[in-house]
Fold these 4 entries.
Entry 1:
Amino acid sequence: MNESKALVSFLEAGPWLEWDITGTMTAADLVQHLAKTVKSEQLSRMLAALRDVEGNAAPTFRMVGPLNQPGGVTFAGERLPFSVSV
């Protein structure tokens, strides 16, 4: 993690968190992660077969949810801008 931005809103239902967490990783690590997590078996196999992957990625993960409930803050998605060469 190299950057983080959070917003807490005080709504009628209680406090609400919106949190973006940004970091960096190698494209090779990103491809390995995607090969294990994508739902398409065909795409997963294709990603796992890639070799000599070069480049970098700067993923941003988003967490959102109510702060006044146990387990209320959950993963809401990610953005993956990257540059890759194989």
Entry 2:
Amino acid sequence: MTSSLIEAYNKIDFNAHVPRYEAAASQAVLNGNALPVDLNIVTFKKNQFYQNFGSGGFGLIEISNVPRIQFIGDEFFYNGDSIKDVITKFGYRI
């Protein structure tokens, strides 16, 4: 990351930000059936991370302040830097 990018990021007032999910309906409807919405989990589904290198000390996916995260069918191809550590930690072979 460049120093100007880091400076711009540090100037963001996250306390003034109102996340959109707070205004989301408590239930979604599919074919007339109510489906519960869990606002305490983030799901990544069928994403492909291809040829990502040089994370600059951060992970390829940097997530914070989320109680639960679920990855379903995500694929990582030819990534470098910290991705090997993440895959090794969770027991997957590259």
Entry 3:
Amino acid sequence: MKTVPIDDNFEMMLECAERYAIGRHSYLPPFAIAYITTFLPDISYRTLSVFRDDMKSNFAMFARMNWYLSYQKEWKDFHKAVCAELEKRKENEEIRKRGAKREV
């Protein structure tokens, strides 16, 4: 079995998968969502922010153009998971900063 590091290249491929899958009317979106979601705790803040911003802009575009978004519930759940991971990191950073200030 080959292992792949979670680096900038891998994260770029996850972004490509997400962007390709959004709006597709096929079997692909749930598989892409499930696969990417497993990596949320391990990927960079930047990539999480890209996912969050992609979801916000795509939701707005689909609503504005009155298009149907296939797997809407799954995409909204993915968006919530991304936002939750970002919030968790923000809280952890604030706790870390408070702890560092107390040590001084």
Entry 4:
Amino acid sequence: MAKKENMLRSATRLRSAAPESWGDFMVDLRAYAQEIANELVRSPPESLVIQQGRAQAVVDLAESLANAHIEVDRFDARKTQPARNRNEYGAHNWSL
């Protein structure tokens, strides 16, 4: 999961550094995702599963990047919250 977190942190930095370019990129990425979804609808049955996977991957990427700043805030919040009812090994401590 660290690699996804790193990607989302990088996306957040890019969004902050160049908001107009970031917005243009996201518009283009969403247009590309729509294009891939349209190809899925027109796919012959034998390639439907491949096209569906492709469409899902592009849509998931677009959604992840669009919400990167929210996810980064969540990652940071989790890191600052103390672990509740856990022992030093991360196991749940039911005696509390």
